[in-house]
Amino acid sequence: MIADQFQPLTAEQSAFWQQFPRWEQDTNFAVYLGFVVEEIKLDYARMRLPARQEMNQPAGIMHGGAIASLIDTTVVPAVGGPVMSGSFLTISMNVEYLSAVANEDAVCEGWITKRGRSIAFCRAEVRGATSGKLCATASLVYKI
Hints:
With about 140 residues, this protein is α+β, with helices and mostly antiparallel strands. The chain is built from 3 helices and 6 strands.
């Protein structure tokens, strides 16, 4: 499992990220879409997008834009885990859709492959929560 390769957050880091993606807001895009944090470690995060009709495209499978949003949001705590301040901005994101997500939650794991002072390079994988089927992969670059 990818998560096993990463160290836990400190108590202070964990307390900071515990409220993500809500933080002190009643709503935002990630909350509106229904993203759920499952695990955050140093340089790693896993989030879930529960399956619901509003996330589907007309053919009845999860919309690629919803999957891309899940990917983009999942890497934020991986990028920001040790930083806990400032902003984290997507510079680039390349998504490869390998298979459809249909009638199941989507689960995304995102992690840092290389971290600099102001740039982080990330990878992500999205799988069907029930089937375990690899549905999308992505590479991202973030400005810290």
